Amino acid sequence: MTLSRITVTGVRNLQPVTLSPSPRINILYGDNGSGKTSLLEAIHLLGLARSFRSTRLNPVISHDLSTCTVFGQVETAVDQSNALGISRDRSGEVKIRIDGRNVRSAAELAETLPLQLINPDSFRLLEGAPKLRRQFLDWGVFHVEPRFLGAWQRLQQALRQRNSWLRHGTLDSASQAAWSRELVGASDEIDGYRRAYIQALKPVFERTLATLCDLQGLQLSYYRGWDREKPLDQVLAASFERDKLLGHTQAGPQRADLRLRIDSHNAVDVLSRGQQKLVVCALRIAQGHLVGEARRGQCIYLVDDLPSELDDEHRRALCELLELLNCQVFITCVDSNVLRAGWRDDTPVSMFHVEHGVITPDHGPSGVKA
């Protein structure tokens, strides 16, 4: 799966641009603030309808415009193509189109254009709140298990009903029992999908990490969100009074977490920043492998400031892994010489210079390798 064409208008400081990127490695280089990351942000908008740099929309849209738009042509692994388009305006309105039809759910974008992001904020996956790790986990499950989205939607509806009942006590006993059954059923289904996914992810993650660095004793485990020895209906019954006092449900898959430990310590408390980045890269590359196996088409990687906090040895090892994925990669850096060489001769590599929001293909002697 690759982006064969992308058109961006009104995203931050980027000048309107249309690019035909390489199906494999694309390197964007230029000074800080030149607009490199803004192109990655535009691709992220196209795939997820939101920015990875800001929860607020206004900074994403060029200051002299009211709307930002991104169009892309996606080529799949089965010789099909999809035309995607998204526009967002300052009022918050979002318009999504896939192959000429209007789409209401960003989930269809995510399914059509699966993206993996590796950037300086990737450390938050290890040191941030459990919500970030659940999002990472569920992104992977969503792309390999078609039934997951329906179960997740049922869970959200059942949780809303139960939490409203806890706060206001407006449901009759029959409705309470029905929503409790729905909550438990959806929770058990989601837990099963997550467990199966982690079982598949762990060996791929361990092999991937071993090619990047030697971290003895690192263990990846899954906490489902409630006592592993008890069924959820018993846990909910036992915690009802506390849940009512707090006004929301304490146990369930909405409290799940991924845990990375070295011996008895949280990995984030032991690892250096460089090691943390390698662990996160290994997790995301392992996800890419599983998506490729399930969908017959790899996800697209957005790698912002790849050289940051990695020495030459680990940077080369990471580039080799990305190359072996046989997928499309967009990488930003300041110095083009850092990433210009070292790729295999048969790997198409395109270089793009970014300056003051203008993106120019680098067609110099070593600029494009096909």
UniProtKB/TrEMBL annotation:
What Gene Ontology biological process does one annotation of this record name? SOS response
Domain of life per record: Bacteria
Give the subcellular location.
Cytoplasm
> What's the main place this protein lives?
cytoplasm
| Residue ranges annotated for the RecF/RecN/SMC N-terminal domain, each copy included | 3-359
Q: Which GO terms describe its molecular function?
A: ATP binding; single-stranded DNA binding
| Pfam families assigned to the protein according to its UniProt record, in alphabetical order | SMC_N (PF02463)
> Keywords, A to Z?
ATP-binding, Cytoplasm, DNA damage, DNA repair, DNA replication, DNA-binding, Nucleotide-binding, SOS response
Per the record, its GO cellular-component terms are: cytoplasm
Q: Which residues are ATP-binding?
A: G30, D31, N32, G33, S34, G35, K36, T37
Concerning InterPro entries, the annotation shows: DNA-binding_RecF, DNA-binding_RecF_CS, P-loop_NTPase, RecF/RecN/SMC_N, RecF_2
Q: What does this protein do?
A: The RecF protein is involved in DNA metabolism; it is required for DNA replication and normal SOS inducibility. RecF binds preferentially to single-stranded, linear DNA. It also seems to bind ATP.
Q: Which family does it belong to?
A: Belongs to the RecF family.
What is the official name of this protein in its record?
Answer: DNA replication and repair protein RecF
Q: Which organism is it from?
A: Stutzerimonas nitrititolerans
